[in-house]
Write a structure and sequence with these properties.
With 444 residues, this protein is mainly alpha-helical. The chain folds into 2 domains: 279 residues, no CATH class; 147 residues, Up-down Bundle (Butyryl-CoA Dehydrogenase, subunit A, domain 3). Helix content is 73%, strand content 3%. The protein contains 15 helices and 4 strands. The strands form 2 sheets. Strands 1-4 form a two-stranded antiparallel ribbon. The protein has a two-stranded antiparallel sheet with strand order 2-3. Helix 1 runs antiparallel to helix 2, helix 2 runs antiparallel to helix 3 and helix 6 packs antiparallel against helix 13. The longest helix has 34 residues. It is globular, with a radius of gyration of 22 Å. The protein starts with a helix and ends in an 11-residue tail after the last helix.
């Protein structure tokens, strides 16, 4: 830490914007990790000291990330804002998350929400750190538009608002004492989706977990394009031993989901003993499988973790969802007592959507204007465009049913959760499963 701080101070003193920006990014990453640990300790132990440490580290993370982005913009000669490739987009998305969350924290003091928001910010920071290209480079012609700058900036902040609304929706359902079996079923279902999507079905079809093949290049390494394949399709190499583990995870997730559904068919509340045990076993297996995947992939000479950021993101998200359910089940009474009233959580989620929805509208409008300039048409039903429209419609349904029909509570918050799942598919799933004009940002 001392060496990092000296590097930042030296860079600021000498006016070296690019290396100082990189050092500030590293500092913010460390601060995000520390903030996450603080909030998780607060979640488990209910110690205000841990919350204060987590909040302070969150402020440091936000401030250092703001400095990193500003210096990166300066290093680019003000020619383009710092969110025009995958690395910059992820960093700016994290900046939106921490800014939105800190505003909510200061304004409404929902201390416990940080334990659910900050891990997702850490995940995005980890993805950014894996990005193969962190250099500041001239923009390709399709990206040389002020409309793209507005489009990406607004999308990052809008997605951050939807993430916050999602957290409040989940906490509302928990506070409203929705049966734990529902949480188990959804988490297990997401694990199944994540394993199948991250492997593109190869786990089920071939018993393997493939990653994009890479070879050495003058710039370090590059992915190997699939002969005769569409743009964004690459040759694969299987991670030894990961396929059977992923297949076992898929099977256990199906068993866990079936146990949860069976519990829901019975009148008693909560989740039965077998479903609870299956959930914990799924968490343990998913943890071991993820560790194995990272360890073996790091040893392979013909692939890089950085070549498959979206696959890894989905798997880590699945792990976080299952961890969330395990914590809910383990600390149910303490968490219920710590949360604000259900109607307060409902209102906070609504306010977050009211921020995110107009921004999502602006995302679609500015994207259409940019597409018209870049490709000669405002709308072409590209997979990313279509997924964005579906997301917008879901949140429109949320607001319509709330403002005109009077829906609040469970029904409204369920729509908010579905909306954020659509955001995840738009941001991650489309890049993994589909190809299109947005493939320049896919990263595999």
């Amino acid at each position: 830490m001392g060496a990092l701080l000296r590097e930042i101070a030296s860079g600021l003193a000498s006016g070296q914007a690019a290396p100082t920006s990189a050092a500030l990014f590293d500092l913010s990453f460390l601060a995000f990790i520390a903030a996450t640990i603080g909030y998780l300790i607060y979640l488990g132990a209910r110690r205000d000291t841990a919350w204060r440490a987590g909040f302070g580290c969150g402020v440091l993370a936000g401030a250092s990330l703001t400095g990193a982005l500003a210096l990166r913009w300066i290093a680019a000669g003000w020619s383009h804002p710092p969110f025009t490739n995958m690395y910059e987009s992820l960093v700016f998305f994290v900046w939106g998350i921490i800014v939105v969350y800190l505003v909510v924290e200061v304004r409404w003091r929902v201390k416990i929400a940080g334990a659910f928001v900050l891990p997702l910010a850490c995940l995005a920071m980890g993805l950014a750190s894996l990005s193969p290209n962190k250099e500041i480079e001239p923009l390709v012609p399709a990206l040389q538009s002020v409309w793209l700058h507005i489009h990406v900036a607004v999308a990052s902040i809008g997605y951050a608002a939807f993430l916050t609304a999602f957290v409040f929706a989940v906490l509302f359902l928990f506070k409203d004492k929705v049966r734990m079996a529902w949480f188990v079923a959804v988490a297990a279902g997401f694990v199944m989706f994540a394993v199948l999507a991250a492997s593109r079905g190869a786990v089920l079809l071939d018993g393997e977990f493939p990653m994009d093949k890479t070879v050495a290049s003058p710039d370090g390494w590059m992915k190997v394009a699939l002969p005769g394949g569409a743009e964004g399709q690459y040759e694969k190499t299987a991670v030894p031993g990961a396929g059977p583990l992923m297949l076992a995870t898929l099977f256990l997730a199906a068993v866990t989901a079936a146990a949860a559904v069976a519990a829901l068919r019975r009148p008693e509340g909560g989740v039965d003993k077998f479903a609870a045990q299956a959930t914990f076993a799924l968490f343990v297996l998913l943890t071991f499988t993820g560790a194995w995947l990272l360890f073996r992939a790091a040893q392979m000479p013909d692939t890089r973790l950085a070549a498959n950021p979206y696959s890894l993101a989905l798997l880590v998200l699945a792990w976080l969802f299952v961890l969330l359910v395990v914590v809910f089940h383990w600390r149910r009474d303490e968490l219920l007592a710590a949360l604000p009233a259900a109607d307060a959580l409902d209102r906070l989620g609504y306010k977050a959507v009211m921020v995110g929805f107009p921004l999502m509208t602006l995302v679609i409008v500015t994207g259409a204007v940019w597409a018209n300039k870049a490709w000669g048409r405002p709308w072409g039903w590209d997979p990313k465009e279509t997924a964005s429209l579906v997301t917008w419609i879901i949140y429109l349904l949320y607001l319509h049913t709330r403002l005109t029909v009077g829906w609040t509570g469970r029904r409204s918050n369920l729509i908010a959760i579905v909306g954020f799942l659509s955001v995840i598919f738009t941001y991650l799933g489309v890049n993994l499963l589909l190809s299109g004009l947005h493939a320049y940002a896919s990263g595999g």
